[in-house]
Specification:
Elements lengths: L9 H12 L3 H17 L3 H28 L20 H7 L3 H4 L4 E5 L5 H14 L4 E5 H10 L6 H9 L3 E7 L6 H14 L4 E6 L13 H12 L3 E5 L17
Parallel strand pairs: 1-4, 1-5, 2-3, 3-4
Helix pairs in contact: 1-2, 2-3, 3-6, 7-8, 7-9, 8-9, 9-10
Length: 258
């Protein structure tokens, strides 16, 4: 009887070489273990082929996820576990949890988070953006003022279109702290062009500390304000954050100031 081939036989080395040339690096590295396991369990041809392909597919998916999280610039993400929804009476937990399913991304709809500082807008926003990354959607988190400064700086080296495209392209763009700083006419134009480019083509999440009626003061003119807001709120989900700020000092020393 012909002796069954072991994982150390020449053919296993050929498998490794083929995996290497096909850039199946995860399969190449795991091949020895897969062959040894197959020697013991005697899987069907289909099961063994599936084990090999699943090994490579899983590794590539994890690498893609890691790259997506890195490119998203999300930083630390706390998630919604432990978030005190009771302190936010107008924020419905089931609505937030539904947004984590990312259907709004498929529908290319926006989310507007409005409320005073310290109410958890950025935390909820990052949780939703993180869920988008886990589902494979390209995501970019940015401070609005810093983004506009970056686009403006691109004029100096002739990369304006590339810079604008960098923010227009992701499936999900998060504009944090919109309106914390006013816009001059040029900055307002950049924002309008970006919002117009993404309207109906991608989803945008915005956090702002004031309601829409006050946004006009951030723009050079009411017309520019209305044109930008109109596109942002079109079919958008609006989350209103109210209540007391989560933020508080660690220590207080001395008498109260008059």
């Amino acid at each position: 009887m012909k002796k069954r081939e072991t994982p150390d036989a020449p053919s296993s080395e050929e498998l490794r070489r083929i995996a290497e040339e096909l850039n199946l690096t995860a399969l190449r590295d795991a091949l020895g273990g897969l062959l040894a396991q197959a020697e013991q369990s005697s899987p069907s041809y289909t099961e063994f082929a599936l084990d090999m392909l699943r090994t490579e597919w899983t590794a590539r998916r994890e690498r893609k996820l890691a790259r997506g999280l890195k490119r998203s610039h999300l930083g630390t993400v706390e998630g919604i576990d432990g978030f005190d929804f009771a302190a936010r009476p107008q924020l419905e937990p089931r609505v937030v949890k539904e947004l984590l399913n990312c259907r709004f991304l498929e529908e290319k709809r926006n989310i507007i988070c409005v409320g005073k500082p310290g109410l958890g807008k950025t935390r909820i926003t990052k949780a939703i953006a993180h869920a988008a990354c886990l589902r494979g959607y390209s995501t970019l988190f940015t401070n609005t003022a810093e983004m506009l400064e970056d686009i403006h700086a691109s004029l100096a080296d002739g990369t304006f279109k590339r810079a604008l495209r960098r923010y227009a392209k992701p499936a999900l763009l998060v504009l944090d702290e919109l309106g914390y700083e006013g816009f001059d006419r040029q900055m307002a134009t950049y924002l309008f062009r970006l919002v117009s480019a993404r309207h109906g083509a991608g989803a945008t999440i915005v956090t702002a500390n004031t309601g829409f009626s006050r946004w006009v003061r951030f723009f050079p003119s009411e017309a520019e304000s209305i044109a930008t807001i109109d596109r942002l709120v079109d079919r958008a989900t609006i989350l209103r954050f109210t209540g007391k700020s989560f933020r508080s000092p660690k220590d207080v020393h001395g008498a109260p100031l008059d």
